[in-house]
Design goal:
Blueprint: E1 5-14, E2 17-23, E3 33-34, E4 37-39, H1 46-58, E5 62-67, E6 72-73, E7 78-87, E8 100-107, H2 121-128
Parallel strand pairs: 1-7
Antiparallel strand pairs: 1-2, 1-4, 2-3, 2-8, 5-7, 6-7
Length: 133
């Protein structure tokens, strides 16, 4: 059996909004929205990977809070795990630095106004329960 590779996604929360990122690459994912993040490297904890990926992709500094229960299959051998996080007080505002061309802070009522990647939908549903109504 192939060892699974964990991809961490960030449910980056700001009060009552969730950050969504629109993919610009690869072509088959471009234009769809996701929770930003990336692969956990050898010897790295998921929390450290998330902090690194958000710094690389969005230019932000975050505090990782906790893991959203569940794990969602991506294409083998990848699985998605999602963690909630908040921007640190001295962090710059997020900017789409790589793999994304647009970012949006979505309220609970706006969550489904963007076409999410299929594999992110179950995670976004779980995160939605943490946003105020």
């Amino acid at each position: 059996m192939t060892e699974r590779i964990v991809v961490v996604g960030a449910a980056l929360l700001d009060a009552d909004h969730l950050l969504a990122a629109r993919r610009s690459a690869p072509p088959e994912l471009a234009g769809r929205w996701e929770l930003p993040g990336g692969k956990v490297e050898q010897g790295e904890t998921p929390e450290a990977a998330l902090t690194r990926e958000l710094r690389e992709e969005l230019g932000v500094e975050v505090e990782v809070i906790d893991r959203v229960p569940g794990e969602w299959p991506l294409r083998p051998p990848y699985v998605l795990q999602v963690w909630t996080a908040h921007l640190l007080p001295d962090s710059p505002e997020p900017k789409p630095l790589q793999d994304h061309d647009e970012l949006r802070w979505l309220s609970r009522d706006e969550l489904w106004s963007v076409p999410w990647l299929d594999q992110d939908i179950p995670a976004v549903k779980k995160v939605a329960t943490r946003l105020p109504t």
